[in-house]
Write a structure and sequence with these properties.
The protein is of the alpha/beta class. Helices cover about 35% and strands about 15% of the residues. It contains seven helices and ten strands. The protein has helices at about 15-25, 80, 110, 135-140, 145-150, 160-175, 215-260, and strands spanning about 5-10, 35, 50-55, 60-70, 90, 95-100, 120, 130, 155-160, 195. The longest helix is centred in the last third of the chain and has 44 residues, at about 215-260. The termini are far apart. The relative contact order is 0.17.
Length: about 260
């Protein structure tokens, strides 16, 4: 059973402890782009950010909300499906992890991700792709990710995804302040990180026009055919090479006979 994290955005106070824990655990440098605040954004160094947004509550009153962002760790990740080098892999515990030694730098993962999460180290001479890996070594041991373990406001709950989903449904059915939607339950087939909010998710910058179907399922039939297409093209190109080589040889022999 995969692990997940339930995020209650109504509890977040924007302290940024999670962003600091992420950098310390993963040994990431500080970026010129802030990891907390209105302009916070994910970068190759910022794997976790807390974005500040002034929005309106159900009564139309202006309120501040603080949105923790990181990789969603999809149940069926598009990045994994798109990576022919197997640099991205989904673990049975839940995290989607990246193996830099397998990466060829094609950046298909960046194009495939519906949440625009993977980032590229553009300024480095030998760049890699980077993103949150949900502290997979901790999760493998049954421990919560670093960002979750340091939160002083009880924003996060770590555990079995299905149990968290059941708890989330109970929470929103009992408390009318919550939006009747669990973000991540069904988006692109479901994600390991799920969110509760008292403000519509579109106001908080979440993508709400995503399909409920996993993205790899759209291309699965075609991807199965890829090896056969590759072999077929190999045969065709080899045949064309030998045909062209034979024609050139005949032309040369004919030219020699004419000169003789």
């Amino acid at each position: 059973m995969s692990k997940g994290v339930l995020v209650d955005l109504t509890k977040c106070v924007g302290c940024g402890s999670c962003t600091v824990a992420c950098k310390l655990w993963n040994k990431n440098d500080w970026d010129e782009n802030p990891s907390i605040g209105p302009t916070a954004k994910l970068t190759d160094k910022n794997w976790t950010v807390v974005q500040f947004k002034e929005v309106k509550d159900k009564q139309g009153e202006p309120v501040w909300r603080f949105i923790k962002q990181q990789c969603f760790h999809c149940k069926e990740p598009a990045c994994v499906s798109a990576c022919f080098a197997k640099a991205f892999q989904k673990t049975k515990e839940g995290p989607v992890i990246y193996y830099p030694h397998l990466c060829v730098g094609c950046r298909y993962c960046m194009v495939a991700c519906p949440f625009n999460v993977p980032k590229y180290e553009w300024e480095k001479p030998f760049p890699l792709v980077t993103k949150c890996m949900m502290c997979d070594t901790k999760v493998q041991k049954g421990e919560a990710p670093a960002c979750v373990s340091v939160c002083p406001a009880d924003v996060f709950k770590f555990g079995d995804r299905e149990a968290l989903l059941k708890e989330a449904k109970a929470t929103i059915s009992k408390d009318p302040k919550y939006v009747k939607h669990i973000y991540g339950e069904e988006e692109v087939g479901g994600t390991e990180w799920m969110y509760l909010s008292d403000v519509p998710f579109e106001q908080l910058g979440f993508k709400t026009n995503l399909t409920k179907r996993s993205l790899p399922s759209y291309t699965e039939a075609y991807m199965h055919a890829t090896p056969f297409v590759g072999v077929a093209w190999g045969v065709i190109l080899t045949g064309l090479y030998h045909y062209t080589k034979r024609r050139n040889q005949i032309a040369k022999d004919k030219d020699k006979n004419i000169k003789a």
